[in-house]
Amino acid sequence: MSKIRFTKMHGCGNDYIYVDAMQHSIADPVQASILWSDRHKGIGSDGLVLIDKSPIPEADYSMRIFNADGSEAMMCGNASRCIGKYLYERALTTKTHIRLLTKSGIKTLNLHVRDGMVESVTVDMGAPQLENPEQFVVSRGLNQGTFVSMGNPHYVIFTDNVDQVAEKGRALEHHPAFPQRCNIEFARVDTVVDGFAVDTVIRTRVWERGSGITQACGTGACATAVAAFITGRAGRQSQIVMDGGTLNIELRESDNHVYMTGPAAFVFDGEIEL
């Protein structure tokens, strides 16, 4: 049995186990994620993230992410912010602009550093995709929400009752309209007036594909903000308030890219036998 060093981190409560794959090789990350993510018998997390050098020169590092059920995800916004903080504060890089290779392409991380600490990270999440006929088929009876792909599929339903995620999330994840399954968001748009400033605050709860209800979802926050904009419920900037914290999302007009800004935090380090 070999011992693997790991770090547990979270972004707005969306917690993952991070392993430096440049130091530790994990032959079966699917099984490792299932075992280690168990909150009663393992470390406890929403999944496993492997950080490695990029195999291509266009990116600095790469990440692979496995959900708690062992399925491999295309992208995770919260995990990408955590990786930025991990790389910088563990002295693996001095860069504050990092190109991260994911299964959904290269994402750029801009680290906001103060006194040697990463206070927050802005991620260029790329341009949203609003239609994906392979995963969104209205003719199959699913038409109450808005489909948005942020490199992974999301279905956003605007409602006054965001807590119905517990009742309906699993069934919608596995709905026939989504052959590859889907992340589900239930969102309520609120307008907050502070003096002359008007902010759009969107309370969102998320059911993540392969993990169930999570405290937060970075790509889900982006998808929710995009859905609110294209349906006329919000402008190009929104605060997405999830169970574990708040993310600031901007759909920038100049390039039609979604920019996500939020915190990342270390929880603890440890070793586990493999």
Describe the structure concisely.
The chain is an alpha+beta fold and 274 residues long.
Overview of this structure, please?
This protein has four helices and 17 strands. It has 274 residues and is of the alpha+beta class. The protein has a 17-stranded mixed sheet that branches. The chain is globular and about 55 Å long. The relative contact order is 0.18.
Please outline the helices and strands.
Elements: E1 3-11, E2 14-20, H1 29-37, E3 47-53, E4 61-67, E5 72-73, H2 77-89, E6 97-102, E7 105-114, E8 117-124, E9 146-149, E10 153-158, H3 165-173, E11 183-194, E12 197-208, E13 212-214, H4 218-230, E14 237-242, E15 245-251, E16 258-262, E17 265-273
Parallel strand pairs: 2-3, 4-6, 10-11, 12-14
Antiparallel strand pairs: 1-2, 1-17, 3-4, 4-5, 6-7, 7-8, 8-16, 9-10, 11-12, 12-13, 14-15, 15-16
Give start-end ranges of low-pLDDT stretches. 133-140
The proportion of strand residues reads 35-45%
Instruction: Give the averaged pLDDT, no decimals.
Output: 92
SSE run: EEHEEEHEEEEEHEEEHEEEE
Based on secondary structure, the structural category is alpha+beta
Q: What's the total helix number?
A: 4
Number of strands: 17
The percentage helix is 10-25%
Largest sheet: 17 strands, mixed
| Gyration radius, rounded | 18 Å
Note the gap between the termini.
Answer: 6 Å
Estimate the global geometry from the Cα principal axes.
globular
